[in-house]
Amino acid sequence: xxxxxxxxxxxxxxxxxxxxxxxxxxxxxxxxxxxxxxxxxxxxxxxxxxxxxxxxxxxxxxxxxxxxxxxxxxxxxxxxxxxxxxxxxxxxxxxxxxxxxxxxxxxxxxxxxxxxxxxxxxxxxxxxxxxxxxxxxxxxxxxxxxxxxxxxxxxxxxxxxxxxxxxxxxxxxxxxxxxxxxxxxxxxxxxxxxxxxxxxxxxxxxxxxxxxxxxxxxxxxxxxxxxxxxxxxxxxxxxxxxxxxxxxxxxxxxxxxxxxxxxxxxxxxxxxxxxxxxxxxxxxxxxxxxxxxxxxxxxxxxxx
Length: 304
Prior knowledge:
The protein has 304 residues and is an alpha+beta fold. It is 31% helix and 27% strand.
């Protein structure tokens, strides 16, 4: 790994290279272990170089955005984490279409749409993640989903050798699913089809959604948003609440008393605290209601 780090420092022109990166600083739960190496590419050329070098060495790696749906186990991640950030955050408008980079935050993209009199993305204005992650997992809120506005997605293969454009039809969107989860391709950017509207009306809808979010969700504490996927025909938060688990605390991790679909870090939570609490919630809900809750949060890395 040290040889790779030295090599990347020499050849990457616009990137940040962080050995032994403390990933709690880069994830919204503010918990978890370190990554052997975190690379934040400054542009597409540097990303391609990193992917090619990793492929040639057969080194494990994962790609992240804002870290709002990611938890690294306390033993850390023995590989490379690539974070798409400001180097992939451009947003531009062409007619009723908006073209945005994978590293742009969903809130920033929604705001840019509003400022240009384009509606249809209001639902995403409060989702605390990146466009790349939103497109990859078909993020949604308030009865809206990314699949309703995506026209096409530009992706790169994991070896850095092929860039292609994937149409909406080929994204094969489902609930918190896209075909990219199977192909493992990496989102570079996306074209969103929006609709003309009055800026003040779009802004008012965004404000309404965000006020609802702030009143019902524990925005004041570190979390990963809704921790569990919605089970068919039900809601994870209702099942958790009906199981009497609201407020349950293990270490620094807690089922939020404000919204039982959230696991929050009330102070000093470890990844182990969060995962242990997750398992207790899953086992209790399964025992009482026969429903196995699936985490929406991506959990990777080694046990301590």
